[in-house]
Design goal:
This protein is an alpha+beta fold. Helix content is about 40%, strand content about 15%. A hairpin with a 2-residue loop joins strand 24 (about 470-480) and strand 25 (about 480-485).
């Protein structure tokens, strides 16, 4: 079928204007600098032609109209000044437009403007969230959107079409994804109920009790219930003897019944009125009905309508055929003069209030006789409604007269307003809203609906006519010539202030002549304006549904200076049969506690469950669920451009983001293909950040003059809406139990906290996964300088501003996610009160005032969070539970939000102090406290301050727990460098000005602390041994020999060194072995068997002769003779200033080791190395002989200096034979040595 949209001609002035206008040439949105006008919304736009939102298209979205710029040529800057200004930007010399320490926050239109104070990312992001929260909170109330005398703006498809806008044949009318309510469940009337219905002899009626999740039907004197969700859970009440004429469920008067009685079931027969107590189903149990012995005679009355006051429990009823209001009074006490139940008429005084009227009697006498009592048809009440907030009772009569009664006291009911239809029509003419649809001769009022004060401060009532028009009525209190609605007391006058006509049936039709809803039987209106109208049909009723399009209303209020208009989406709902009743199943939709913001569905759709409405027909129960805007977007698929044109860039990005990342929330998750389309839409429709112009066309070059992209606005808006209902709410509240004791409870339910946390977590994961595709998330954090052209520089500046905003939001998002996780952990009912009692009184009061905003964004919030964690740890320890569970959960769920390490340190110090106090009295408890303290210190080792580490170690040493002390010190060394950068810095030779140097220094301090522990335990061992030796010497026949292994500190020393040896920290072992070397205990290295000792010796052998000697000795001890020979051979050729005799010794040892046993694979290598050592050893012997000859040569007696020079050359490295012969043996004339050289050479 063809689809059309019929708003009034003026409506497009404000509708469909995105927050940021323009569209790019490829069909995607561009920035706000493109102000090309958009094509109007048409059926072709809705169908989309199969194009994706980012495909090529010639259509442009709407742009908000802006006022013309003032013409002030005297103040216009010359072109040269503009060029100089832009050149400054190119050169990197930014022109600040805001004072120092100011940052950019979005204004009402989303433009970034300067505001003072915030300097950190958290403060900046908090400003963004508060701005969008304030924007949503000022959503126009009902009073503003109905200021015009008449309205008829709908997004509606007429019923004459045969195909939908999406090419599929559909029954009735269909606006596709924009359908306000969809039928989600049908429950047919069970066969067993039909069987009872077929037995009807006199009278039957049916209805809904949504409070009990039951439908009901009367069959003569029997009442049957059944669960309309599953068609089961049948219950019958058959104790009455007479036909049931009227049934109603009301809330009881407070204090009259026990707490388990939540409702009263009211049954009216021709003779009696009965009150039954009802306990609703709970815990799998069915409904329970209880006799109350409360009944009253109804002789002469025929009860028609029954209505109760939810606040006071008062019960009002009407008498069929009259305009009287009766009240049923009831009490749990009975007196001599008054029973538990009675009736009274509030519309007649004296004895007439307790007896039937003439009209009542006329129904029981022949028509001829009754004609004497009345010459015309009597006026009767067709509807009655109770407004508990204003203490008013409204009635609608069969003559379309509205009356208002004031409940001035607990028992009185006073008529204060009578507003007949002729007065209504007269007022409509006065406001120029008269219409044939409102003609008193052919039109009647069929329904009335009270409006709560939190929804509208002025509108009291909405009346629906038989032509489907809605009349908005205001009740005021008048005083003389003035009228005021704010004075105390009940209202005295009523006036219609607007009429809303049905949708048009054709594009050319005037709204005031539309007969689309002519024949309306009755209607129901639910907050915040859901309209259900039942229109008579031949084979069955037609059901018309409409709902406010809050997205377009909000867009009008934020982008236009004119008064916003009410716009609704409307459709004919699928229905079968004749409608009997319409009831609200879910809690009334409410975003705010005041008229402003009350109906902002786009803000509440992420946290409030969709409204469900049940429609009972003679065939079954039909349940309709509100389709939120986010669900509409998910269903659009590739036809998302119309959504962009209708709701603007920011709202589109916000909605697309919610669809793309949501797997939880009231609206549920979307299919994968819809989420992928939404992801692309969020990225493509977001536009770009750009500089804005001032009023004179001069671009102010600064970060604070950048208007950020639609993606940024959408992200800010979505974050604000997720936490909308908790952001400024206290986290904890104090309550009192029945015994008067105070206890603490979460101000927000745990399921709600988990839902919010789930949405925030999904959002964070989505942004992290798509970081590389979203401009600003991975952009520069500082100005890089000129990049060539002016445009390139300005684009870079815009990207920097975008990144600053995005980074701030991501930081806050992380805090919010972890903060909610933290709150959900502490507010478990069994724990919260106990945790709060462990806090100081001042901290308790501060926590009661702490809001979620403060927790997420302030240092006070973090401080109080840490106090809560400390209290949680105390509770866990006092109850005997493990602290590990608390600490592990904190680290996993909110590691960066609140530090568990501070709490761990606090508890470890507490355990150390406890160990001190029980050291002498309870050794086992002392050891337990020491062990637990060390374990906790290890958990906090990564963040513990070095001074606190030293303090903890000193306490451990004072308690003789050296093993635990060195364990903590070594753990701290590894935790401060989890990336193990210090070892690479050490391996690279510790280069200067290296950033790893700071980490290396931290680990070095921890190692020195460990060595102090070793020094301390060594000193105690030495002192203990000296003391024992002194005692032995003083004793008679004493000996100086002491059994060292039996001393107390020797065992402690062994354990402490064992922990040091067992450390897996390679760098520590290098420091450890250096420490041994520095103390002159190099020999102890040979007793060490660790994976690091060999590498240490190899690393230092080339620079230390002592270490080199240790290395070959180490290999010898390990029976690695080849390795030992290689070290010895290298030592014989090394420097170190070794004398020739030492080198001969090394060569001799090398040759000897080469002759030892070796593995088969090393044997040939050992033989070759042994031969080389043997050859060099022969030369060394010749050189040694030459050295001895020089020392004993008397020819050098006159020239000792010459002798010394020659000795220095010979008593060093082993020289080759040529050098020995030519430079020493031959010139000095040592014939025998020359012969030995020649022999060795041959």
């Amino acid at each position: 079928m063809s689809l059309s949209l019929f708003p009034s001609p003026s409506s497009f002035t404000h509708l469909g204007s995105p927050a940021v206008g323009g569209g790019s040439a490829d069909g995607g949105p561009s920035d706000a600098r493109n102000n090309s006008p958009a094509a109007p919304v048409t059926p072709a736009n809705l169908r989309g032609g199969g194009q994706t939102p980012w495909s090529a298209s010639s259509r442009q979205p709407f742009t908000p109209k802006s006022p013309p710029k003032p013409q002030q040529p005297q103040q216009q800057q010359p072109q040269q000044q503009q060029q100089q200004l832009q050149q400054k930007a190119v050169d990197g010399r930014l022109n600040p437009t805001t004072p120092a320490k100011q940052t950019a926050l979005p204004d009402k239109s989303g433009i970034v403007s300067a505001q003072s104070a915030p300097t950190t990312p958290i403060d900046i992001a908090k400003g963004y969230v508060n701005t969008f929260l304030d924007t949503d909170s000022f959503y126009p109330d009902l009073d503003r959107v109905i200021q015009q005398s008449q309205s008829s703006e709908y997004f509606f498809s007429p019923p004459s079409s045969t195909a939908s806008a999406y090419g599929q044949p559909t029954p009735g009318s269909d606006i596709g994804p924009w359908t306000p309510f969809t039928r989600t469940h049908i429950s047919n009337i069970p066969d067993i109920i039909f069987e009872q219905y077929n037995k009807t002899e006199c009278y039957t009626q049916m209805g809904l009790f949504p409070e009990l999740e039951r439908a009901w039907i009367t069959v003569d004197n029997k009442l049957f219930f059944w669960n309309y969700m599953n068609g089961e859970d049948f219950l019958s009440y058959e104790d009455l003897q007479h036909t049931i004429l009227s049934v109603q469920l009301v809330k009881p008067s407070p204090g009259t019944f026990v707490d388990s009685i939540k409702y009263l079931l009211l049954l009216a027969t021709p003779l009696e009125f009965y009150i039954l107590a009802v306990a609703p189903p709970s815990g799998g149990s069915d409904i329970q009905l209880f006799e109350t012995s409360m009944s009253v005679s109804l002789k002469g009355l025929e009860v028609d309508k029954i209505k109760g006051s939810d606040r006071t429990g008062r019960i009002f009823m009407t008498n069929r055929g009259t305009s009287d209001i009766w009240e049923i009074t009831y009490s749990n006490a009975e007196s001599w003069f008054r029973g538990k139940c009675a009736k009274v008429c509030h519309t007649r005084g004296g004895l007439a209030g307790f007896t039937p009227s003439v009209a009542d009697v006329s129904r029981f006498v022949p028509d001829v006789i009754s004609s004497y009592f009345s010459s015309s048809k009597a006026e009767s009440i067709v509807a009655i409604e109770v407004d508990d907030d204003r203490l008013l009772v409204y009635t609608l009569s069969s003559k379309s007269t509205i009356r208002a009664y004031h409940m001035s006291s607990a028992t009185d009911l006073t008529l204060v307003i009578t507003y007949n239809y002729s007065s209504i029509y007269s007022h409509l003419q006065m406001i120029n809203a008269a219409s044939p649809l409102l003609d008193p001769r052919s039109t009647a009022i069929v329904s009335i609906q009270p409006i709560h004060p939190i929804e509208s401060a002025q509108i009291h009532l909405i009346a629906t006519t038989s032509t489907g028009c809605r009349l908005f009525l205001r009740a005021v209190r008048s005083f003389g010539f003035g009228i005021s609605s704010n004075e105390k007391g009940p209202p005295t006058n009523m006036q219609v202030i607007q009429v809303r006509f049905p949708p048009r049936e054709s594009p050319t039709q005037l709204p005031s002549t539309s007969a689309a809803l002519k024949g309306t039987r009755f209607s129901k209106i639910f907050s915040p304006g859901y309209y259900f109208a039942v229109k008579e049909g031949q084979a069955g009723d037609n059901l018309f549904v409409s709902a406010p399009d809050s997205g377009r209303v909000l867009l009008q209020s934020t982008t236009s200076n004119t008064t916003p208009q009410l716009i609704e989406t409307a459709a004919w709902a699928d229905i079968e049969g004749f409608v009997q009743e319409i009831a609200l199943l879910s809690p009334p939709f409410q975003v705010s506690n005041r008229p402003e913001g009350f109906g902002n569905e786009v803000a509440g759709q992420y946290t409030l469950a969709p409204t469900e409405v049940a429609v009972l027909t003679n065939t079954g129960v039909h349940i309709y669920t509100r389709r939120y805007m986010v669900q509409t977007f998910a269903m659009l698929g590739n036809d998302a451009r119309l959504f962009f044109e209708m709701y603007g860039r920011a709202e589109t990005c916000c909605t697309a983001l919610s669809v793309a990342c949501a797997t939880t929330g009231p609206a549920g998750s979307s299919p994968l293909d819809a989420r992928e389309i939404a992801r692309k839409a969020f990225i493509e429709f977001g536009g770009k950040a750009h500089l804005r112009d001032d009023n004179y066309g001069v671009t102010m070059i600064s970060l604070d003059s950048v208007r950020l992209s639609g993606r940024f606005e959408g992200l800010s808006m979505y974050m604000a809406r997720i936490v909308r209902d908790i952001w400024r709410a206290p986290i904890i509240k104090q309550l009192k139990a029945r015994d008067g004791k105070a206890f603490y409870s979460s101000n927000v339910s745990l399921p709600k906290l988990n839902s919010h946390h789930g949405m925030l977590y999904d959002l964070y994961q989505f942004l992290e996964q798509n970081r590389s595709y979203i401009d600003g998330l991975s952009g520069p954090d500082h100005v890089l300088g000129a990049l060539g052209s002016n445009n390139a520089r300005l684009d870079e500046l815009s990207l920097q501003a975008e990144h600053r905003g995005m980074h701030a939001l991501m930081t806050l998002l992380g805090h919010m996610t972890e903060g909610l996780s933290f709150v959900s952990m502490i507010v478990e009912p069994r724990k919260l009160s106990e945790v709060m009692m462990n806090l100081a009184a001042d901290s308790q009061q501060r926590l009661l005032k702490l809001t979620f905003q403060d927790l997420f964004t302030s240092e006070t919030g973090k401080e109080l969070a840490n106090e809560l964690v400390r209290a949680m740890v105390n509770v866990s320890i006092s109850s005997g539970s493990s602290v590990d569970s608390v600490i592990d959960v904190l680290r996993k769920r909110c590691g960066s939000f609140c530090s568990s390490d501070a709490v761990v340190l606090y508890k470890s110090l507490e355990l150390l102090n406890k160990a001190k106090s029980v050291a002498s009295s309870d050794p086992d408890m002392k050891m337990y406290c020491l062990t637990e303290s060390v374990r906790l210190l290890e958990l906090a080792a990564g963040t513990i301050v070095f001074d606190e580490l030293q303090n903890s170690v000193s306490i451990l040493l004072s308690l003789d727990y050296h093993p635990g002390a060195i364990q903590v010190a070594l753990k701290a060394a590894t935790e401060v460098d989890r990336g193990n950068q210090a070892i690479t810095y050490f391996a690279d030779g510790k280069p200067a000005l290296d950033p790893r140097e700071a980490i290396y220094a931290k680990r070095e301090k921890c190692y020195h602390l460990a060595f102090n522990i070793l020094d301390d335990v060594d000193a105690r061992v030495n002192g203990e041994i000296a003391s024992m030796q002194h005692s032995e010497q003083l004793s008679p026949g004493g000996s100086t020999v002491v059994n060292v292994s039996e001393t107390k500190y020797t065992q402690l020393q062994s354990e402490t060194y064992g922990i040091a040896y067992g450390s897996h920290d390679e760098l520590f072992h290098y420091f450890f072995y250096d420490w041994f070397m520095a103390r002159g205990l190099a020999g102890r290295l040979l007793d060490i068997d660790t994976p690091y000792i060999e590498q240490y010796l190899q690393r230092n052998a080339s620079s230390s002769l002592e270490v080199a000697d240790l290395l070959w000795t180490f290999y010898c001890k390990k029976e690695q003779f080849l390795a030992a020979s290689e070290v010895l051979y290298r030592l014989s050729r090394a420097g170190f200033g070794l004398p020739l005799s030492q080198r001969i010794e090394y060569l001799s040892r090398a040759r000897g080791f080469c002759n030892c046993y070796g593995p088969p694979g090393q044997r040939q290598t050992m033989l070759r190395l042994g031969q080389r050592a043997q050859d060099e050893l022969e030369v060394a012997y010749i050189q040694d002989d030459l050295l001895s000859a020089v020392r004993n040569d008397e020819r050098f007696l006159d020239d000792e200096q010459k002798r010394a020079e020659i000795i220095d050359k010979l008593d060093s490295l082993v020289l080759d034979l040529t050098t020995l012969y030519n430079e020493f043996a031959s010139p000095l004339g040592y014939q025998s040595i020359c012969e030995a050289i020649v022999k060795a050479a041959s």
